[in-house]
Amino acid sequence: MVPFAHQARLPTVALLLCWSATANAATSSQLRARGKVLLQENCGRCHAIGAVGRSRLKAATPMRDVYARFAPRELQAELTEGMVSRHRAMPQIEFSDEDVDAILAYLYALAVKK
Q: Which are the contacts of 2, defined by CB distance < 8 A and separation ≥ 6?
Protein backbone atom coordinates (compact mmCIF):
# COMPACT_ATOMS: atom_id res chain seq x y z
CA MET A 1 0.00 0.00 0.00
CA VAL A 2 1.24 3.49 -0.90
CA PRO A 3 1.41 5.96 2.01
CA PHE A 4 -1.06 8.86 1.82
CA ALA A 5 1.68 11.48 1.32
CA HIS A 6 2.87 9.64 -1.81
CA GLN A 7 -0.71 9.14 -3.05
CA ALA A 8 -1.26 12.90 -2.93
CA ARG A 9 1.82 13.47 -5.12
CA LEU A 10 0.91 10.94 -7.80
CA PRO A 11 -1.60 13.18 -9.66
CA THR A 12 0.91 16.04 -9.62
CA VAL A 13 3.69 13.84 -11.01
CA ALA A 14 1.36 12.44 -13.67
CA LEU A 15 0.30 15.95 -14.66
CA LEU A 16 3.91 17.11 -14.94
CA LEU A 17 4.83 14.11 -17.08
CA CYS A 18 1.91 14.73 -19.45
CA TRP A 19 2.72 18.44 -19.66
CA SER A 20 6.38 17.66 -20.34
CA ALA A 21 5.49 15.24 -23.14
CA THR A 22 3.12 17.81 -24.68
CA ALA A 23 5.74 20.56 -24.43
CA ASN A 24 8.37 18.30 -26.03
CA ALA A 25 6.01 17.43 -28.89
CA ALA A 26 5.29 21.12 -29.51
CA THR A 27 9.00 21.94 -29.37
CA SER A 28 9.81 19.11 -31.79
CA SER A 29 7.09 20.29 -34.14
CA GLN A 30 8.45 23.83 -34.05
CA LEU A 31 11.98 22.56 -34.66
CA ARG A 32 10.85 20.56 -37.71
CA ALA A 33 8.89 23.53 -39.04
CA ARG A 34 11.95 25.74 -38.66
CA GLY A 35 14.07 23.17 -40.48
CA LYS A 36 11.61 23.11 -43.36
CA VAL A 37 11.67 26.90 -43.62
CA LEU A 38 15.47 26.94 -43.58
CA LEU A 39 15.57 24.40 -46.41
CA GLN A 40 12.94 26.31 -48.39
CA GLU A 41 14.85 29.57 -48.05
CA ASN A 42 18.34 28.22 -48.66
CA CYS A 43 17.97 25.09 -50.77
CA GLY A 44 14.47 25.07 -52.24
CA ARG A 45 15.31 27.02 -55.39
CA CYS A 46 17.15 23.93 -56.66
CA HIS A 47 16.42 20.96 -54.36
CA ALA A 48 13.11 19.29 -53.60
CA ILE A 49 12.62 19.59 -49.87
CA GLY A 50 9.37 17.70 -49.39
CA ALA A 51 8.58 14.04 -48.82
CA VAL A 52 7.82 13.67 -52.55
CA GLY A 53 8.50 15.56 -55.73
CA ARG A 54 11.36 16.35 -58.04
CA SER A 55 13.97 19.01 -57.62
CA ARG A 56 13.60 22.16 -59.71
CA LEU A 57 17.15 21.69 -60.95
CA LYS A 58 17.55 18.23 -62.45
CA ALA A 59 21.08 17.81 -61.12
CA ALA A 60 20.03 18.73 -57.56
CA THR A 61 19.34 15.71 -55.40
CA PRO A 62 16.14 15.95 -53.32
CA MET A 63 17.06 16.76 -49.73
CA ARG A 64 15.31 13.60 -48.49
CA ASP A 65 17.78 11.60 -50.62
CA VAL A 66 20.73 13.64 -49.37
CA TYR A 67 19.63 12.71 -45.85
CA ALA A 68 19.51 9.03 -46.80
CA ARG A 69 23.03 9.09 -48.30
CA PHE A 70 24.86 10.46 -45.28
CA ALA A 71 25.41 9.18 -41.78
CA PRO A 72 23.73 11.67 -39.41
CA ARG A 73 27.01 12.94 -37.92
CA GLU A 74 28.53 13.32 -41.37
CA LEU A 75 25.55 15.31 -42.67
CA GLN A 76 25.62 17.40 -39.51
CA ALA A 77 29.27 18.27 -40.17
CA GLU A 78 28.60 18.99 -43.86
CA LEU A 79 25.77 21.39 -43.05
CA THR A 80 27.77 23.12 -40.33
CA GLU A 81 30.87 23.55 -42.51
CA GLY A 82 29.04 24.32 -45.75
CA MET A 83 28.39 21.43 -48.13
CA VAL A 84 30.75 21.27 -51.07
CA SER A 85 29.37 20.39 -54.48
CA ARG A 86 30.73 19.90 -57.97
CA HIS A 87 27.98 22.25 -59.11
CA ARG A 88 29.63 25.69 -59.07
CA ALA A 89 26.38 27.62 -58.68
CA MET A 90 25.56 25.90 -55.38
CA PRO A 91 26.29 28.28 -52.53
CA GLN A 92 28.26 27.00 -49.58
CA ILE A 93 26.06 27.87 -46.63
CA GLU A 94 27.42 27.35 -43.14
CA PHE A 95 24.43 26.75 -40.91
CA SER A 96 24.56 27.36 -37.17
CA ASP A 97 24.33 24.38 -34.82
CA GLU A 98 20.72 25.33 -34.02
CA ASP A 99 19.86 25.53 -37.73
CA VAL A 100 21.48 22.14 -38.37
CA ASP A 101 19.46 20.60 -35.53
CA ALA A 102 16.26 21.98 -37.07
CA ILE A 103 17.15 20.79 -40.59
CA LEU A 104 18.06 17.31 -39.38
CA ALA A 105 14.84 17.09 -37.32
CA TYR A 106 12.82 17.95 -40.42
CA LEU A 107 14.69 15.52 -42.68
CA TYR A 108 14.44 12.78 -40.05
CA ALA A 109 10.67 13.30 -39.87
CA LEU A 110 10.50 12.84 -43.66
CA ALA A 111 12.52 9.63 -43.44
CA VAL A 112 10.30 8.23 -40.70
CA LYS A 113 7.15 8.88 -42.77
CA LYS A 114 8.37 6.55 -45.55
A: 10
Q: What is the CATH class of 4-113?
A: mainly alpha
Phi, psi of 49 (to 5 degrees): -115, -5
Beta strands in 5-103 (DSSP E): none
pLDDT band with cut points at 50, 70 and 90 for residue 7: very low
- Asked whether the CA dihedral 17, 20, 26, 30 is positive or negative, the reply is negative
- Residue (of 33, 27, 109) closest to 64 by Cα position: 109
Burial, 24: exposed, middle or buried (Cβ in 10 Å; 0-12, 13-18, 19+)?
A: exposed
CB atoms within 10 A of CB 18: 10
Q: Between 23 and 77, whose confidence is greater?
A: 77
Q: Which H or E run contains 19?
A: helix 4-42
Supply the Cα-derived Rg of the chain in whole angstroms: 20
pLDDT at 18: 54
Pick from 50, 83, 79, 45: nearest CA to 64: 50
